[in-house]
């Protein structure tokens, strides 16, 4: 079964810093890797979707990379803002049926 | 609305009661997924529908869990004889096309508490 691990589990940074969230997965036979944001008591908001043939995706201050061979993905957040405070989840898709396999998330706090 | 909606948002059930959770996907979306999220964990896959066909129910934890999508739009997740370990947030997601290749859009979830 696909195991998805996210490091660190929690992160606190001052406003304005650039930061990197890490995601690793055990089975490289994935179709895609998706990053989500989850605010307390809310559902998941999709941030970026990287197909297996792609190396990275960018949206505004966010950049996600994918290295299938090493089983790793990173989410880079530039110039962090307090509004970025949330839990960030990565999910690997397509290696096992129709499931997205999620990590436990990284809880991010950006302080003013 | 344009997004995925779920109802109720919160449900408290006594152990042994049956519950039904509803999901309204984005109009026209072919795929519908149900996930279970325990406190402090990532979501765990429960089941997948392509239109009205349930193609994968490998994640349903027991035969007390049943899902349907009879007309290929609204879906209901039913839990019979609820147990305390069923307490979790139940998330529904939809995507435009079939399979897992495409972006999934999630609803706000239903928080189920079994007392």
Fold and architecture overview:
- The complex is a heterodimer of chains A (112) and B (115).
- In chain A, β6 and β7 (62-67) form a beta hairpin.
- Chain A has no helices and 11 strands.
- By secondary structure, chain A is mainly beta.
- The termini of chain A are far apart.
- Chain B is mostly beta strands and 115 residues long.
- Chain B contains no helices and 11 strands.
- In chain B, the strands form 2 sheets. In chain B, strands 2, 4, 5, 6, 9, 10 and 11 form a 7-stranded mixed β-sheet that branches. A 4-stranded antiparallel β-sheet of chain B has the order 1-3-8-7, with no helix packed on it.
- In chain B, β7 and β8 form a beta hairpin.
- Chain B is globular, with a radius of gyration of 13 Å.
- Chain A binds chain B through residues 4, 31-32, 34, 36, 42-46, 49, 51, 89, 91, 93-94, 97-105, and chain B through 4, 6, 31, 33, 35, 40-45, 48, 55-56, 58-59, 91, 93, 99-109.
Write the layout of secondary structure elements.
The complex is a heterodimer of chains A (about 110) and B (about 120).
Chain A: E1 4-7, E2 10-14, E3 19-25, E4 32-38, E5 44-51, E6 56-59, E7 62-67, E8 72-77, E9 86-93, E10 100-102, E11 106-111
Parallel strand pairs in A: 2-11
Antiparallel strand pairs in A: 1-3, 3-8, 4-5, 4-9, 6-7, 7-8, 9-10, 9-11
Chain B: E1 5-7, E2 10-13, E3 19-24, E4 31-37, E5 44-50, E6 53-56, E7 65-68, E8 75-79, E9 88-95, E10 105-106, E11 110-114
Parallel strand pairs in B: 2-11
Antiparallel strand pairs in B: 1-3, 3-8, 4-5, 4-9, 5-6, 7-8, 9-10, 9-11
């Amino acid at each position: 079964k696909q195991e998805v691990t996210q490091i660190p589990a929690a992160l606190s940074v001052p406003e304005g810093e650039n930061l990197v969230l890490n995601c690793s997965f055990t089975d490289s036979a994935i179709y895609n890797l998706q990053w989500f944001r989850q605010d307390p008591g809310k559902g998941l908001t999709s941030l970026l979707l990287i197909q297996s043939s792609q190396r990275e995706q960018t949206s505004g201050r966010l950049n996600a990379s994918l290295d299938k061979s090493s089983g790793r993905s990173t989410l880079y957040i530039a110039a962090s803002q307090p509004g970025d405070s949330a839990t960030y989840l990565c999910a690997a898709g397509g290696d096992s049926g129709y499931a997205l396999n999620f990590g436990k998330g990284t809880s991010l706090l950006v302080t003013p | 609305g344009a997004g995925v909606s779920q109802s109720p948002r919160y449900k408290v059930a006594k152990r042994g009661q049956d519950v039904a959770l509803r999901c309204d996907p984005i109009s026209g979306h072919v795929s519908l997924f149900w996930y279970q999220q325990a406190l402090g964990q990532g979501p765990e896959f429960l089941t997948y529908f392509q239109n009205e066909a349930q193609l994968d129910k490998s994640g349903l934890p027991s035969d007390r869990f049943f899902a349907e999508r009879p007309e290929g739009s609204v879906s209901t997740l039913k839990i019979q004889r609820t147990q305390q370990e069923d307490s979790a947030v139940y998330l529904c997601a939809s995507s435009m096309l079939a399979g897992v290749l495409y972006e999934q859009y999630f609803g706000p979830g239903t928080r189920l508490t079994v007392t």
